[in-house]
Amino acid sequence: MSATGDLDVRIAALHLHPVKSCGAIAVDEAVVIETGLEFDRAWAVVDERGVAVTQRDLPRMALIQPTLKHIDMVLRAPGMLALHVALDTVEAATQATVWNDTVKAYDMGDLAAQWFSDFLGRKLRTVRFDPEQRRLADARWTGPIEAETAFADAYPLLVASTAGLDELNRRLAASGQSPVTMQRFRANLVLDGLDANGEDHLDEIVFAAPEGPVRIKLVKPCDRCTVPDVDPATGTPGHAVGDALSAYRADARLDGAITFGMNAVILEGIEATLKTGMTGRATYKFA
Fold first, then answer.
1. Are 163 and 197 in contact (CB under 8 A)?
2. Which contiguous run of DSSP H or E holds residue 13?
3. What is the rounded CA–CA span in Å between residue 243 and residue 5?
4. Which residue numbers delimit the MOSC domain (predicted)?
5. What residues does 44 pair with on adjacent strands?
6. In sequence order, what are the beta bridge partners of 243?
7. Residues contacting residue 255 through CB under 8 Å, at least 6 positions apart
8. What are phi and psi of 168, to 5 degrees?
9. Cα separation, 200 vs 277, whole angstroms
10. Which residues, in sequence order, are bridge partners of residue 202?
């Protein structure tokens, strides 16, 4: 830490979640776009009313593993043939609802709909976010910043730290539970160089990408539901993670809600590339 109160951080991992609430992809680099990282939460699975479904209701979504290829996304799940979804092709225009936002989207066709319906046991369809749509994060936390997001719950980026995960796993071990991975928390940027949950206290981080600076601002603690208790290897829910977090992660900023990680918005750096191992300069938030 410098005398001015800022510190160096390092990108330990980058994660994309192409289909909302399905498996994550660890990548070596990712392009920053208006809604976060390119391809992150670009697709969603919706019910017959067009409402996005998640692991909260369908924990087996954790078993659906995407892979991004040059021209398509390949989805695999236990007992299913691979589904290929073209990156440059959509079908009919439609709408989708994420929480309180109903946005323009594109249906991905009957084959994708049948694949997800068969695996998850409900009548479902798959949609892609319309890039012409502007869905904005909650201004109560972003202030004057108009932060765009796609099918993420509410914000373009989620930031967490390796030290925060280490502390959770220390507590899990002390109670006789198995360690967990960051996959449970669905973070986009995982940082080294912080104390446990040190991201809670950061204001901005600047990364010197080859194309120019990438500036992100951490705006809201991420309150946690039941998803971190879904085992990504089996798709079965539990309660050990929630129990452990409840002992030390109640956040007064959210009226005592359990939090892990920080939601962030992009101030600068659209079309720049973030890479694992890249270092950045972080500043503290002072009330």
1. yes
2. strand 7-16
3. 34
4. 124-283
5. 127
6. none
7. none
8. -60, -45
9. 21
10. 284
Residue 51, helix vs strand vs coil: strand
Report the amino acid identity of residue 217: K
Buried residues in 57-79 as b, exposed as e (16+ CB within 10 A): ebbbbbbbbbeeeeeebebebee
pTM of the shown model: 0.95
pLDDT of the chain along its 287 residues, tens only? 443 458 999 999 999 999 999 999 999 999 999 999 999 999 999 999 999 999 999 999 999 999 999 899 999 999 999 999 999 999 999 999 999 999 999 999 999 999 999 999 999 999 999 999 999 999 999 999 999 999 999 999 999 999 999 999 999 999 999 999 999 999 999 999 999 999 999 999 999 999 999 999 999 999 999 999 999 999 999 999 999 999 999 999 999 999 999 999 999 999 999 999 999 999 999 76
- 126: nearest Cα among 19, 45, 18: 45
Contacts 24+ apart (CB under 8 A), 81-90: 83/111, 83/112, 83/115, 85/43, 85/112, 85/126, 90/128
The two structure tokens encoding residue 196: 């446990």
Burial of 159 (0-12, 13-18, 19+ CB in 10 A): buried
Cα–Cα distance for residue pair 284/287, rounded to 1 Å? 10
- Write down the CATH number for the domain with range 7-284: 2.40.33.20
- Residues forming beta bridges with residue 36, ordered by sequence position: 33
Q: 206: which strand partners? A: 215, 281
Q: Domain residues of the chain, as ranges?
A: 7-284
Distance CA 283, CA 236 (A): 39
Amino acid identity for residue 278 in this structure: M
Q: How many residues does the chain have?
A: 287
